[in-house]
Automatic annotation (TrEMBL):
<keyword id="KW-0732">Signal</keyword>
<dbReference type="InterPro" id="IPR042100">
    <property type="entry name" value="Bug_dom1"/>
</dbReference>
<dbReference type="InterPro" id="IPR005064">
    <property type="entry name" value="BUG"/>
</dbReference>
<dbReference type="Pfam" id="PF03401">
    <property type="entry name" value="TctC"/>
</dbReference>
<comment type="similarity">
    <text>Belongs to the UPF0065 (bug) family.</text>
</comment>
<feature type="signal peptide">
    <location>
        <begin position="1"/>
        <end position="23"/>
    </location>
</feature>
<protein>
    <submittedName>
        <fullName>Tripartite tricarboxylate transporter substrate binding protein</fullName>
    </submittedName>
</protein>
């Protein structure tokens, strides 16, 4: 996908905001708004959620509070957001995993499918996952050496949760290289990074937002990033394609969404507020400081983008036979 379209393509909300009926029915929140983040505090989802909450609060004239509802790969928080009153006062912090693989893993048991049940207000940012190995447990310093080492002995890898983008980034890597490794899922980025720093696993995939500082400190040894372009924060780290895995391209995006039953005037007001909050120079600076690339799409393109992304991630999950058992 063209990164020029996915990043910084700031645009208006088109016909949604042009309707005279919507202009005649302005909506304002009447109490604090909560953003449900479906992972624990300290990880990239929590970081980005708090970055966007501050300017969004200014735009809407109400406090915007982060509520961490972790568990079941993010599905617990997703269900809570789906069951909330569709009045604009509860927003889901969406991720690639929630809209991508979770409908495949959890929809049958929970009845919630994020693609079907939520309207996207807009994108916030995008990060790459980094394939990092643990010095002292892995000797290899490049991809070829790591693949060779991994084929000589059993390895253990960690992820931020079963079915997460971290897990599926590893699953695609293993399928493309023929490596076998034992998977240990953790409950979010912070527990995963802690386990990697404690040398409990041999390697893992985690985002630039939570791994870059440890990479720069030498505690983690990066081998490649999962996007087709190098991460701004780590320009010397090659992409997976540059490292020899042709066709590997998995970026992780973040958005905000509300239950699909939310009235159009409410959606329009929230989407407009998000667009203003996201496009503020101070927001861009804070996102980049957190090693997240600002990302935006015209409002009318959000749904098609999410559906295409979900289809791709679900194909990877099916090929890897990912399940919640």
């Amino acid at each position: 996908m063209a990164h020029t379209t996915r990043r910084l393509a700031l645009a208006g909300l088109g016909t949604l905001l042009a309707s005279p009926a919507l202009r005649a029915q302005p909506w304002q929140p009447s109490r604090p708004i909560r953003i449900i983040v479906t992972y624990p505090p300290g990880g990239v989802n929590d970081i980005v959620g708090r970055i966007i909450a501050e300017p969004l609060s200014r735009e809407l004239g109400q406090p915007v509070l982060i509520e961490n509802r972790a568990g079941a790969g993010g599905n617990i928080g997703t269900v809570a957001a789906a069951q909330a009153e569709p009045d604009g006062h509860t927003i889901l912090f969406g991720t690639t995993a929630l809209f991508g693989v979770n409908p495949l893993l959890y929809a049958a048991s929970s009845g919630v499918d994020a693609v079907r049940d939520f309207t996207s207000l807009g994108m916030i940012g995008e990060v790459a996952n980094i394939l990092s190995v643990i010095p002292g447990r892995v000797q290899a310093t490049d991809m070829a050496g790591f693949i060779a080492e991994a084929k000589r002995r059993p390895l253990i890898f960690g992820s931020v949760g079963n079915g997460s983008s971290s897990h599926l980034s590893a699953a695609l890597f293993l399928s493309m290289t023929g490596i076998e490794a034992t998977h240990v899922p953790y409950r979010g980025s912070s527990p995963l990074v802690a386990a990697m720093l404690a040398r409990e696993v041999d390697f893992g995939f985690d985002t630039t937002a939570t791994s870059t500082a440890h990479v720069r400190a030498g505690a983690l040894r990066p081998l490649a990033v999962t996007t087709t372009t190098r991460a701004t924060a780590l320009p010397d780290v090659p992409t997976m394609q540059e490292a020899g895995l042709a066709g590997y391209d998995l970026g992780i995006w973040f958005n905000l969404g509300v239950p699909r039953r939310t009235p159009a005037p409410v959606v329009a007001r929230l989407a407009e507020a998000l667009d203003r909050a996201r496009s503020a120079p101070a927001t861009h600076e804070r996102l980049r400081t957190a090693f997240v690339e600002p990302m935006a799409l015209p409002f009318a393109q959000n749904e098609a983008f999410i559906q295409a992304s979900a289809a791709r991630w679900q194909a990877i999950a099916r090929a890897a036979r990912v399940s919640i058992d």
